[in-house]
Design goal:
The protein is of the alpha/beta class.
Amino acid sequence: MKTILIVEDDRRIAQNISRGLMEEGYQTEVAYEGYNGRDLALRHPFDLIILDINLPGLNGYEICRNVRAEKPHLPIIMLTALGEIEDKVEGLERGADDYLVKPFDFRELNARIATCFRRADLIDKTVADEVLRIANLEINLSTKQVKRSNTPIDLTAREFALLEYLVRNRGRVVSKMDLAEKVWSLNFDPGTNVVEVYINYLRKKMDRDFEPKLIHTRAGMGYVLKVE
């Protein structure tokens, strides 16, 4: 069930929105003040935010900017009485996904929420396709960044290719021949130790100082990347 945060200082409007969304099958939480709304948005895993602009404490533009910096893909719908084109442009430039002017028809709000969720689902799928994970290891195939326990790890292009191949074949023993052919595009030479050398580089950079250990040697067979 998706959870929506409503940041709105008009209690009647906030409760009406909350009631309508719960009838549509959503869970809701309401904040009536800007700082509280921002803190809730940053600390909890909401699926969407409905955000007023004129709020006590911290205005909606600042909340939107703060949230967008920490959660770039979280859908935000600004819901406000400020209907001038300049207000809409500023809201969208601060990171809002949509902008709805009061007074509004709840059916339109509900339709716009559904649209935001469809868009977010597509983004999530794209991001998931670009990121490989196992345990606390994360490999971003788009940016070529590698992290363990959120600690960035600097790899060369060849080290990255080797790690990517191991992760894509997680749980399966891959031989030195496989690695030489798939990562280096070489016919395997039993006399070369290039595979062992690069496996050692990887272990030093992304396994030695972290738990659990992920790269394991299978004597006479090759290597396997898995959590043991």
